Amino acid sequence: MKIDSPEALRALYGAPGERSARKQLVALDPHCRRFVALSPFVLLATSGADGLCDVTPRGDAPGFVAVADDRTLLMPDWPGNNRLDSLMNILDRPGVGLLFVIPGVDETLRVNGTAEILVDPALLQRFAADGRAPKTVLRIEVREAYLHCAKAFMRSRLWDPAAQVDRSSLPSMGQMLKDQLNLEHGESQAEMIERYRATLY
User: Fold this and answer.
1) What is the pLDDT of residues 58-95, one digit of tens each?
2) What's the pTM?
3) CA distance linking residue 51 with residue 91, whole number of Å
4) Which of 120, 35, 18, 116 is nearest to 72 (CA)?
5) What is the pLDDT of residue 33?
6) Which of 14, 139, 26, 170 shows the shortest CA–CA distance to 75?
7) CA torsion angle 88 112 66 40 (round to 10)
8) Of 75, 153, 135, 150, which is closest to residue 111 (Cα–Cα)?
9) How many distinct helices (H) and strands (E) make up the chain?
10) Exposed end of the chain (fewer CB within 10 Å): N or C?
11) Where does the pLDDT of residue 26 fall: very low under 50, low under 70, confident under 90, or very high at 90 and above?
12) Residue whose C-alpha is closest to residue 87's, from 143, 36, 136
């Protein structure tokens, strides 16, 4: 049996509380701006023309996503795997969702809006790091912003050192890719980490 209507879904869960309904903002207030400034990690959600969604992690020093004004965020795009899933999706459908995370803080900040891909030289230089500039910068127009409660982080014990999983519980990334792609040789975890470090910017 599946839920197939908004009415059935609401009957199961009930209505949101008044505070939950009212907390959604149309712009970044001082608390949201401070949250963005302290966040070194954000998850970027996009959707493509095929209707499938994609979520990608983005991270750098705290505040790497700049607040241009209370309705505009700027995010540099640093080297990755060149699949360009998120950027291709934005070309098709500009709607994006962002989830800002601060290490040690159980609450998160959700921001929804639209994005465009910019290549203005002055803007790229603004985000230069380690002698390199990003290839593009995302300009995100904020439509919705709200703080998200701590329950998921509390349940998962994400920041609890006692809940951390030892890396040896999984094969190395190189070994997993070797198996998945049927490669003859695979990188060791140490080799892969060194390659990552050489191409962070």
Assistant:
1) 999 999 999 999 999 999 999 999 999 999 999 999 99
2) 0.94
3) 14
4) 116
5) 98
6) 139
7) -90
8) 75
9) 8, 7
10) N
11) very high
12) 136
Predicted local confidence at residue 108, as pLDDT: 98
Rounded Cα gap, residues 85 and 95, in angstroms:
14
Structure-token pair, residue 168: 């040896």
Sole residue written with tokens 């400034």: 37
Pick the CATH number of 18-157 from 2.30.110.10, 3.40.50.620, 3.90.1150.10, 3.40.1380.20: 2.30.110.10
Tokens at 85, concatenated: 């899933």
The one-letter amino acid at 129: A
Strand partners, 59: 41
Q: Where in the chain is the domain with CATH 2.30.110.10?
A: 18-157
Q: Look-up: residue for tokens 């899933």?
A: 85
Structure letter (DSSP) for residue 168: G
Compute φ and ψ for 107, nearest 5 degrees. -80, 155
Residue 63 contacts residue 38 (beta carbons within 8 Å): yes
